[in-house]
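dumping this here so i dont lose it
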């Protein structure tokens, strides 16, 4: 459980965030059709990222059964991406948007999503309770802000290994979400890009295979090697006693 400005939030191992008091599920940075975007530039990637992301999204929706779902920006990798959806993927996505109150927050990659074509409504940002949902985080202070955009991950040393996992990061007044998409990269939370957001310190919640592990920032380490060569999928993390 994470508390932000008195709102209780449940981080999920998929990278989704459940807000029980408002019956809302939040996901960020789906980057649907990233594979096809790269293919148009001559970079060959397996064209299965959208389907993998939507299947994981469907599973976490079934788990929490929320009334409302908010996609927190960069839902698509570029403005043309919705038109490149395969028919089966489009059907799967529109089935979800029609079954729930669905909100598309505008991202820097795709702008405002055409809710008429895919279902749902599009907006730049929105409030739920004490929370302000937007894609790009503002410089501190930003009380109650839930954002994405930075694709945070945390790195820890454990049993002689360096483990690198996507994470939620929060100081109790704001939270930055991990990227949900299958082909999204990640940025170490100790990178300078996070410094303006958490000038008074923070904690991270690292995503293991079966649960989310809270980690104080004092246990996190900087990257010593390129992220692509770091160990991405450790079998297990040890919970921290706090």
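and the seq i came up w/
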């Amino acid at each position: 459980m994470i508390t932000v400005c008195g709102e209780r939030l449940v981080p999920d191992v998929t990278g989704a965030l459940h807000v029980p008091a408002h019956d809302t599920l939040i996901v960020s940075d789906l980057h649907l059709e990233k594979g096809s975007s790269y293919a148009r530039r001559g970079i060959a990637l397996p064209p299965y990222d959208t389907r993998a992301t939507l299947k994981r999204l469907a599973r976490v929706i079934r788990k929490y059964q929320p009334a409302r779902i908010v996609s927190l920006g960069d839902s698509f990798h570029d403005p043309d991406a919705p038109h490149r959806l395969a028919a089966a993927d489009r059907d799967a996505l529109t089935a979800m948007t029609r079954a729930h109150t669905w909100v598309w927050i505008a991202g820097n990659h795709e702008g405002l999503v055409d809710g008429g074509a895919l279902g749902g409504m599009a907006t730049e940002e929105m409030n739920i309770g004490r929370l302000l949902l937007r894609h790009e985080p503002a410089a501190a202070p930003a009380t109650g802000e839930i954002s994405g955009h930075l694709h945070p991950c945390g790195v820890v040393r454990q049993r002689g290994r360096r483990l690198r996992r996507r994470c939620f990061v929060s100081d109790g007044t704001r939270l930055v979400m991990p990227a949900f998409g299958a082909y999204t990269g990640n940025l170490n939370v100790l990178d300078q890009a996070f410094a303006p957001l958490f000038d008074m310190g923070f904690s991270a919640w690292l995503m293991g295979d079966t649960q989310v592990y809270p980690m104080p920032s004092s246990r996190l380490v900087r990257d010593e090697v390129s992220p692509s060569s770091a160990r991405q999928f450790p079998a297990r993390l040890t919970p921290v006693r706090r």
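The chain is about 15% helix and 30% strand.
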